[in-house]
Design goal:
The chain is mainly β and about 210 residues long. The chain is built from no helices and eleven strands.
Length: about 210
């Protein structure tokens, strides 16, 4: 037998808490109805389903410098993170903020994400002949010291509950020197910089 209760306000008889139903009960909000919440939802002791939520956040920050001048991909020291997804359906949001410098004179410096779950690079362009597939690329034809900050992001689907390591990799051509967190011309003066870089992974639950 169904029944209906109509009221403008529910208040606790004692204390400050109101309990709705018993364990395993389900409360349904009909289609087109709106549940308006001006306060805070505390789901720390329960489970939220039907919408995504951040399950964990891991981040790595690099404040010292790094350089590379070979035509190969190398791992940037300290810019890697490892997390173990709670579910195979979880998505991983990757965020990066990288301070990069080049030595000018037709210099090239490239960056990409690498995933242990994929066994290689993720979020890179399609293979096309001898062209380099990457997540971000920059070049300079100036002979002056150049540095700037770049941001890129990617949503990965590792489909695993095993630990996954994501890292930032760096590529520079022969005779080109690429730098992380500094410029090529590193004069000890306020006009020259020391930057910071980071990589962050957020697990988003389904």
């Amino acid at each position: 037998m169904s029944s209906e209760v109509k009221a403008n306000k529910l208040s606790p008889a004692t204390g400050t808490d109101v309990t709705l139903g018993d364990a395993s009960d389900t409360f349904t909000i009909p289609a087109s109805a709106t549940l308006s919440i001006a306060g805070t939802i505390d789901a720390s002791s329960g489970t939220a389903t039907g919408f995504g939520k951040v399950l964990q956040v891991v981040t790595a920050t690099k404040t010292d410098t790094f350089s590379h001048n070979l035509s190969s991909w190398v791992d940037v020291t300290d810019l890697s993170v490892t997390l173990t997804p709670a579910s195979t359906s979880s998505k991983i949001l990757l965020l990066s903020s990288i301070t990069i410098g080049t030595n000018g004179n037709s210099a090239y410096a490239y960056l990409r994400f690498h995933s242990s779950a994929a066994g290689g690079a993720v979020f890179v362009g399609d293979t096309a002949g001898s062209r380099t597939s990457l997540s971000w690329g920059g070049s300079s034809s100036s002979s002056t010291a150049i540095a700037g900050n770049t941001h890129f992001s990617y949503v990965d689907s590792p489909s695993t509950t095993s630990a996954v390591t994501y890292k930032l990799q760096f590529f520079a051509f022969d005779n080109t020197i690429g730098y992380i967190n500094r410029t090529y011309d590193d004069t000890d003066s306020f006009g020259y910089i020391r930057g910071a870089s980071s990589i962050t992974a957020l697990e988003i639950g389904a």
